[in-house]
Recover the amino acids of this structure.
C-alpha cells in the first residue's frame, strides 16, 4: 500500500514556538555553553504556555544569580529583586493581586542561603506561589563559592580541599516547612519537569520544584565533570520514585538520586484564609 | 526508518514524521540535542556559527517530531514541526 506524500507544517510567523514569551532582543542570554539554566527556563516557559492561562495573569520574580536572570528574559510582568528576596516580593504580588499566578525562578544560593528564611515562612503559610529552584550546587555567578546545597566533599572556590559540610535535602526542607506540592527533576528530564511545573502552577498552595542543573564553569570544572558527564549522571544515577519519603531524598550521586513528585496535598492557602478572616470573602 | 522488530501492520500505521529546524547563530554548541536525540538525527557541523560554535546539522532525515531537542536546548536554537500526510490536510 502506498503512503501519501508528506507535507511540512511550519508554525506561521513563529521562528521558534517560545518567541512570544521571550524578550528576544536580549538573546543570546548570559548563560554559558552547557549551563542547564536555559533548559529549565525553557521547560518553565513551555509549562506556562501549556496551562493555557492568559500571559497577563502571570508574574515572574527572580533573585540574584545566574538563574536569577530568568525574570529579565521573560516577556511578561516580571521583577528581578535583590539577593534572596524573590519570595517576599512574590508574596507581595500575590497578596495585592491574588488572581495572579506568581512564579519564582531562582537559584539554590538565592533561595536557600541568603533567602532561606523567606522560603520556610512562605511554605509555612502555604502562600499560593510556584517556586522553581535551579540547583547547580554552587554560587555560579560569583565564582563558584560553596552553597548550602554543595555536596559533601565537593570542591568549590571556598572548599578547595572538599566540602566539609553536608547539603540541605531541599524537598525534605520544603515538606517540613509546610509546602503542599514538592517535586524534584533534572534539566535532562525536560518532559517530566515541564509537566510538573504545569501541575505546580495549577496547584493551589505553595509549590516547590527542585531542578538539578549543570554549572560546567564553576562547579563542573572543579569537580572533573564536563557538561555531558553531568547529564550522564542525571540519566544513569537517578531513579523516579513518586511519593518517596522526603527523608530519603538526600543527593549523593554515588547512590541513586531520587526524582519524582513527593508531596501533593490540599490545604487552605494564605490569600484564602486572609480574605476570609480579614476581607469578609467567602471561599467558593 | 530502522526498526528493532518490524511491526506486522507497518503498512497501515502512519508514523509521525517531523522536520527539525536549527537556528544556527543562536547555538552555543553544547551538543545536548545531538547526544540525546533518540533517533540520532543530528551531528555537529564542521562550520562555525557567528559566535564561533559548531551548531548541529541534520545527519539523518529520521525526525519523529518528539520536540525533545526543543525542550532540552538552553538557547531556543532548535525546534521541530510535523510532516503531515497531504491527504490529511
Ligand atoms: C546582599 C548580597 N550579597 C551577596 C551578593 C553576591 N551574590 C550574587 S549572586 C550570589 C549567589 C548566587 O547563587 P545562586 O542563587 O545559586 O545562583 P547561580 O548563579 O548559581 O544560578 C551571590 C552570593 C549579592 N548580590 N547581594
Ligand atoms: S557560571 Fe555556571 S550557572 Fe552561571 S551561567 Fe555559567 S554555567 Fe550557568
Ligand atoms: S524532534 Fe526529536 S527526533 Fe526530531 S531531532 Fe529533535 S529530538 Fe530528534
Ligand atoms: S542543544 Fe541548542 S545550544 Fe546545544 S548544540 Fe543543540 S542547538 Fe546548540
Ligand atoms: Mg546556584
Amino acid at each position: 500500500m502506498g503512503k501519501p506524500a508528506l507535507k511540512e507544517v511550519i508554525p506561521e510567523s513563529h521562528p521558534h514556538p517560545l518567541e512570544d514569551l521571550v524578550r528576544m532582543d536580549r538573546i543570546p542570554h548570559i548563560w554559558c555553553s552547557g549551563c542547564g539554566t536555559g533548559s529549565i527556563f525553557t521547560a518553565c516557559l513551555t509549562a506556562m504556555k501549556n496551562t493555557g492561562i492568559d500571559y497577563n495573569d502571570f508574574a515572574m520574580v527572580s533573585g540574584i544569580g545566574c538563574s536569577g536572570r530568568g525574570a529579565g528574559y521573560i516577556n511578561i510582568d516580571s521583577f528581578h529583586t535583590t539577593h534572596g528576596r524573590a519570595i517576599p516580593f512574590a508574596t507581595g504580588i500575590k497578596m495585592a493581586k491574588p488572581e495572579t499566578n506568581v512564579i519564582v525562578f531562582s537559584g539554590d544560593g538565592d533561595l536557600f542561603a541568603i533567602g532561606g528564611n523567606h522560603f520556610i515562612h512562605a511554605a509555612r503559610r502555604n502562600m499560593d506561589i510556584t517556586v522553581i529552584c535551579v540547583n547547580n550546587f554552587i554560587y555560579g555567578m560569583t565564582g563558584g563559592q560553596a552553597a548550602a546545597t554543595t555536596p559533601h566533599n565537593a570542591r568549590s572556590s571556598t572548599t578547595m580541599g572538599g566540602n566539609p559540610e553536608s547539603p540541605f535535602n531541599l524537598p525534605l526542607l520544603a515538606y517540613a516547612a509546610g509546602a503542599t506540592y514538592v517535586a524534584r527533576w533534572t534539566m535532562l528530564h525536560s518532559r517530566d519537569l515541564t509537566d510538573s511545573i504545569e501541575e505546580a502552577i495549577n496547584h493551589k498552595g505553595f509549590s516547590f520544584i527542585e531542578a538539578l542543573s549543570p554549572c560546567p564553569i564553576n562547579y563542573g570544572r572543579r569537580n572533573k565533570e564536563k557538561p555531558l558527564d553531568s547529564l550522564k549522571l542525571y540519566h544513569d544515577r537517578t531513579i523516579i520514585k513518586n511519593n518517596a519519603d522526603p527523608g530519603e531524598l538526600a543527593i549523593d550521586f554515588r547512590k541513586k538520586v531520587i526524582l519524582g513528585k513527593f508531596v501533593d496535598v490540599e490545604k487552605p492557602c494564605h490569600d484564602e484564609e486572609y480574605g476570609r478572616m480579614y476581607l469578609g470573602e467567602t471561599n467558593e | 526508518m530502522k526498526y528493532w522488530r518490524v511491526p506486522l501492520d507497518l503498512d497501515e500505521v502512519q508514523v509521525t514524521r517531523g522536520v527539525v529546524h536549527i537556528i544556527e547563530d543562536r547555538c552555543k554548541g553544547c551538543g545536548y540535542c545531538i547526544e540525546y536525540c533518540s533517533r540520532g538525527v543530528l551531528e555537529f557541523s564542521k562550520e562555525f556559527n557567528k559566535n564561533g560554535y559548531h551548531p548541529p546539522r541534520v545527519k539523518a532525515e529520521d525526525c519523529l517530531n518528539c520536540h525533545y531537542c526543543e525542550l532540552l536546548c538552553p538557547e531556543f536554537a532548535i525546534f521541530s514541526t510535523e510532516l503531515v500526510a497531504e491527504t490529511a490536510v
